[in-house]
Amino acid sequence: MSAPSGENDFLYELELEVEAELTLAESSHPEEAVGLSIIDWLFDPADVEREEIGLRGLLDAVEVLEDGSRPGDHAA
Q1: For residue 1, is it within any domain?
Q2: What are the pLDDT digits (tens) for 54-67?
Q3: Most buried of the four, 35, 56, 66, 74, by CB within 10 Å?
Q4: How many CA atoms lie within 13 A of 28 on its CB side?
Q5: pTM above 0.85, yes or no
Q6: Tell me, what's the pLDDT at 76?
Q7: Residue 76 maps to a domain
Q8: Full residue range of the structural domain in which residue 42 is found
């Protein structure tokens, strides 16, 4: 994670929020719900996994923007 600097303040704050959400998703232990009846589930374990994957993708995108890289930029 990089430190905020001017226009990157928004990205820095977004990165902090996404990391907090990812930590929450990772700590939910969806595998514990598998042993319960579907009626007793507080959430669908597959939904938690999809959310975690989405958050990781969002975090990667924020980090790319913070680094100033753009899709299609390649070192020659």
Answers
A1: no
A2: 999 999 999 898 88
A3: 66
A4: 22
A5: no
A6: 43
A7: no
A8: 9-67
